[in-house]
Amino acid sequence: MLRTLLLIGMGGFLGSVSRFLIGQGLHRLFDTIFPIGTMTVNIVGSFIIGVVYSLAERDNLISPEVRMFLAVGFCGGFTTFSSFAFDKLNLLKDSGFLYLSMYLGGSVFLGLLAVYLGTQIHKLF
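^ Fluoride-specific ion channel FluC, sequence as received from the core. Prediction below:
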């Protein structure tokens, strides 16, 4: 268990640093208000987690430790959007459009609401 936690932690560190560097690099390169760095990281992270789970399921081409390092650690530090995208794909495959819509709409709407409420909390004190 400790080995798994260390692998996840190392992957998370590398994912977080990669997210920062890519975000900063793209922001400097394009000099735009559009969050191109975040969008790029979200798309790349979604692709990576798809590849990782595909290889893990296909004849165990990657070990459980490597899957934890890449999917949970690296992708988790790089972007949780990749997990969000993978969950949506699984819901669509397993449960159909209703649960996918509930998860997608609820996550986006409630996430936006939560950020807004978080920005307003200082007004209570």
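The helical segments are 2-30, 36-57, 64-78, 81-94, 97-120.
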